Amino acid sequence: xxxxxxxxxxxxxxxxxxxxxxxxxxxxxxxxxxxxxxxxxxxxxxxxxxxxxxxxxxxxxxxxxxxxxxxxxxxxxxxxxxxxxxxxxxxxxxxxxxxxxxxxxxxxxxxxxxxxxxxxxxxxxxxxxxxxxxxxxxxxxxxxxxxxxxxxxxxxxxxxxxxxxxxxxxxxxxxxxxxxxxxxxxxxxxxxxxxxxxxxxxxxxxxxxxxxxxxxxxxxxxxxxxxxxxxxxxxxxxxxxxxxxxxxxxxxxxxxxxxxxxxxxxxxxxxxxxxxxxxxxxxxxxxxxxxxxxxxxxxxxxxxxxxxxxxxxxxxxxxxxxxxxxxxxxxxxxxxxxxxxxxxxxxxxxxxxxxxxxxxxxxxxxxxxxxxxxxxxxxxxxxxxxxxxxxxxxxxxxxxxxxxxxxxxxxxx
Amino acid sequence: xxxxxxxxxxxxxxxxxxxxxxxxxxxxxxxxxxxxxxxxxxxxxxxxxxxxxxxxxxxxxxxxxxxxxxxxxxxxxxxxxxxxxxxxxxxxxxxxxxxxxxxxxxxxxxxxxxxxxxxxxxxxxxxxxxxxxxxxxxxxxxxxxxxxxxxxxxxxxxxxxxxxxxxxxxxxxxxxxxxxxxxxxxxxxxxxxxxxxxxxxxxxxxxxxxxxxxxxxxxxxxxxxxxxxxxxxxxxxxxxxxxxxx
Lengths: 413, 246
What we know:
heterodimer, A: 413 residues, 18 helices, B: alpha/beta, four-stranded antiparallel sheet, 9 helices, 10 strands, 27% strand
């Protein structure tokens, strides 16, 4: 039944055909290769630029009340870290309209009450989720925190008490995780997500072209006239779809590695839009740069392999039902959501691998990749996930072969 | 040799129930003869030919082509059949040479034999000028020649033509008709489906009139003319299928 020579003949022909197709090259080679540099340099640079610009901007702040707290108001006005504007009644609207970034409400009699040790709370108003408004609130918070600390220190000094009286000890936090574990946690969620997505999109175009595309162009019937059995035809074609999927994965990972290295050098040299800030903190940034376990990358490739077979077989089968390329597109495009949803769940903090989740396709891959990139190797889960993925892939492939042998699918009208 | 015995093919339709696309068709075509399958659109011609080419499996009945049974030995049947239809297109991104070689390889021919046969066919069909150009840039005539070469690369004993002149201009259609005659002259068994009466008159040694999946009448052109007392094939056809369509 299985004839390797025939499968190879079909594979080589379909591969040659696909390599001459600009659309296939675009989805299999160009997108996976350029996506990572575009994300890291393009989006990364824009984000760094926006962040840096927002940081450098002196926030416009409004003081509500404070008429009987002249010293504090004067200090606020003297601060170079904020620009105080005249108080108006519609200050809330102005924050919403981004005309001012934040407002601080000083309660009546704050200054005299502070001296008496009975001051009311200071209220800071900002627009939640808005970057510049958040920075403005941070500046105000720091101002009043400093004021509070100074008040405490002055009171202790007045009573000849040591400053350590109210802070008998410091609390510090130190990271013991090696850089690759930190990196694994940071990148571990994102890397599988992107690789899974590219693995899927890499298979999408050849799957549609080799099935619905052939039907539409009338070459399917020509091919079926040959004496090669349909099982060998479908396997030859399927291997090309798998090649597309795996090529997209390998190219995206290679591009990711090169881009990460290049982006690290780029940003550390102070070109990333953060300017002086980046240059000043270059050493600190170098130690904070997330790295990933290189063995983990090989682990990711090995674990994604059966999932690539699953994607290729599912896309192949779905496209096979379609009569035209357009119809196939309308069937396969929504499939991306089914791929993205479990991959996104895997990115969520707190979602940990367990025996149940190890059987959920795509989600299990996302979770185990996160662990492997952090240098954690739970061999029992890895075995379970690899085994279940291989099982799903085998079922999907058997189904694809079966569908290709059904004349109501091939000659659907 | 083609021998169809009680070939039947049904399809299930949600609204119409079981549809008999081909209903108990039997006929024989000997080597060196052209059997014309004449019928209107939707009569069952394409389904019959797809059954013979083993693209579809019969619901009941069977056929033998070049001695091989379409149900028991479909791969051997395909290895001995050349199938040319308006719907059998070329791979646009391959050159004519690659297209012919691919089908040679699929038919299990050795590289040496493929090279020899390609040269031979290119000589016969005058293809050398465009042999290494991509098929998507071809004129209708070039496509037609490449399709013929693809069909003949394995030198099949049986040729199946399913409305091969559909959509072709006069000159291209004439070339196809000439090619079909050549196949007969070389001793191949030929089955040719069409709804064009003039093609039947020009080509066919034996004619089967198919309507609603059934073979309603069979015979030579002269037999039909005598039986229905008509010279014109179109009038004969209308009489066989039971009058004008309303």
